[in-house]
Every structure is written in C-alpha cells, then in structure tokens.
C-alpha cells in the first residue's frame, strides 16, 4: 500500500545559521503530536498529522531549535572524525571541516596529493596503504604549515594587543589544540587543519588572547566574548572533534 503522505519544506533561522526541515504529513500518523528527528545523515525530518496547521508545526520546531542544532552538530562531528582505514579509493578524508573522497591512482611521475572537485587524489607509484598514508600525512602537514601561519597573521592584525605576529610552531599534540608559552610562543596542533575554519579561528583567538591574559580569568573571557561572540558554540563543536587531533 502506498502511504498517503505529502512532503514540504520549512526553514527557520537559528543564530547565524538556518535550519532546514522536511515536513512529512501523513494520514497514517493518527497521533496528534508532531515528532522531530535528526537523521543519521543530518537531515531534519518533522512528522506531522495530515491536518496539522502550518503555524503549529512551525511553533513545535521553533521550540526545539536548540536541541535540533545540537543534534545536527553531533551528526556533523561524527562525519568529520572518519579517517581512511585501508587507504584505498572511496574512503573519506577530512580537510578544513569538509569531507573529501579519497582517490588513489597510479603516478606517472612522482608521488603527489591534490584536491580536485570533491576528491583528494593521491597519485603514487606504489599503492600500498603505507605509502598512501605517508603521502597523505605529508600533505596535511604541508597544508597546516601553509594555512595556520596565514590565519595567525590575519587574526593577529585584528587584535590591538598583538604588536607582532608571535613565533609559531606547528606539531603533533595529543591532548591540546594549541598552547601559548609564558614567553609568548604559540604552538598549534597539526590536526587543526582537519577541523572547520571557525574552530581554527577560535583556537587562534584563544591562544592570542593569552598574550594579554595568561589565565582563564574573567578578563580573558571578556576578550573572547568581544572578538568572537559565538565562541562557546564553536568550542563545544571543537570539543566534539577531539578525536580528530589524535588521527594521523
Ligand atoms: Zn587557554
């Protein structure tokens, strides 16, 4: 039997983002309640009875926006902690918070990794998992060494108390995204290049703020609030990505 069902779209603003829902009205839904689900792929689905009025549906969704957003971030984070296991075509690699399909091809010249239209292409003369993994690791390290200093320079310029771009080291860190020494040297986790840009900016701002406030006191958080009003949400997102820092 074909289910009597209609499907419409509903878009609601939430902070600086928009939440898009698919509203499914169904005769089979005898209960009068409206149910909201965040699917494993991140889609938001609202199940409603056939006769439910638009304003009622909108209100039901509006009341649960914070919950929906939290679930969506969880889903997104889950998708970002994936990493290749066998280093073969079809697996997923994550760069700057975006998923790329891995494509392993035979190299004509030397080994090479490059991004092309949604793919992270690894050209290698020897397609063993160790070689592919090594090439990818080198590529991520090179991207980190290119991207993070540029971003640090941009953030430094925006902050009055930063008189000169601080010395930076980029390395593997197993427990932290970044740190700032008492001498003002900033260290960043090479794994940062896998997380979304907004998360990178949060870490940079956090460490640069330590140049002025060494401790996490009220003055420190006042500066974060002023320069990145959404920092708590971004930090929560980054906390959910802790595994990424450990991925090599
Ligand atoms: Zn800190």
Features:
Metal-dependent hydrolase; YgjP-like_metallopeptidase; binds zinc ion; UTP_pyrophosphatase-like; 2 domains; flat; four-stranded mixed β-sheet; hydrolase; hydrolase activity; 248 residues
SSE topology sketch:
Layout: E1 5-14, E2 17-26, E3 35-38, E4 44-49, H1 54-63, H2 65-80, E5 92-95, E6 98-106, E7 112-116, E8 119-124, H3 129-158, E9 168-171, E10 178-180, E11 186-189, H4 197-209, H5 218-227, H6 231-239, H7 242-246
Parallel strand pairs: 2-4, 6-8, 9-11
Antiparallel strand pairs: 1-2, 3-4, 5-6, 7-8, 10-11
Helix pairs in contact: 3-4, 4-6
Bound molecules: zinc ion (ZN).
Task: Describe this entry's structure for a reader.
There is one protein chain. The protein is α/β, with parallel strands linked by helices and 248 residues long. The protein has seven helices and eleven strands. The strands form three sheets. Strands 1-2-4-3 form a four-stranded mixed sheet, with helices on one face. A four-stranded mixed sheet has the order 5-6-8-7, with helices on one face. It has a three-stranded mixed sheet with strand order 9-11-10, covered by helices on one side. The chain starts with a strand and ends with a helix. The model has no long low-confidence stretch (mean pLDDT 90). The protein binds zinc ion. Residues 206, 210, 216 line the site of zinc ion.
């Amino acid at each position: 039997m074909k289910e009597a069902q209609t499907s419409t779209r509903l878009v609601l603003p939430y902070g600086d983002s928009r939440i898009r829902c698919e509203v499914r009205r169904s005769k089979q839904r005898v209960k009068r309640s409206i149910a909201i689900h965040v699917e494993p792929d991140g889609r938001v689905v609202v199940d409603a009875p056939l006769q439910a009025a638009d304003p009622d549906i909108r209100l039901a969704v509006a009341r649960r926006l914070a919950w929906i957003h939290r679930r969506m971030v969880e889903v997104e984070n889950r998708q970002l902690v994936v990493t290749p296991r066998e280093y073969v075509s079809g697996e997923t690699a994550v760069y700057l918070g975006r998923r790329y399909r891995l494509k392993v091809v035979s190299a004509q010249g030397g080994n090479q990794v490059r991004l092309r239209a949604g793919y992270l292409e690894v050209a290698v003369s020897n397609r063993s998992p160790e070689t592919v993994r090594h090439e990818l690791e080198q590529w991520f390290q090179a991207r980190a060494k290119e991207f993070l200093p540029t971003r640090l320079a941009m953030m430094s310029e925006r902050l009055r108390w930063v008189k000169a771009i601080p010395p930076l080291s980029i390395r593997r860190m197993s427990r932290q995204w970044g740190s700032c020494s008492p001498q003002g040297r900033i260290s960043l986790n090479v794994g940062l290049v896998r997380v979304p840009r907004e998360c990178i900016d949060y870490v940079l701002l956090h460490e640069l703020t330590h140049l002025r406030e060494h401790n996490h006191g009220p003055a420190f958080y006042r500066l974060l609030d002023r320069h990145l009003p959404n920092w708590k949400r971004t930090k929560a997102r980054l906390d959910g990505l802790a595994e990424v820092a450990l991925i090599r």
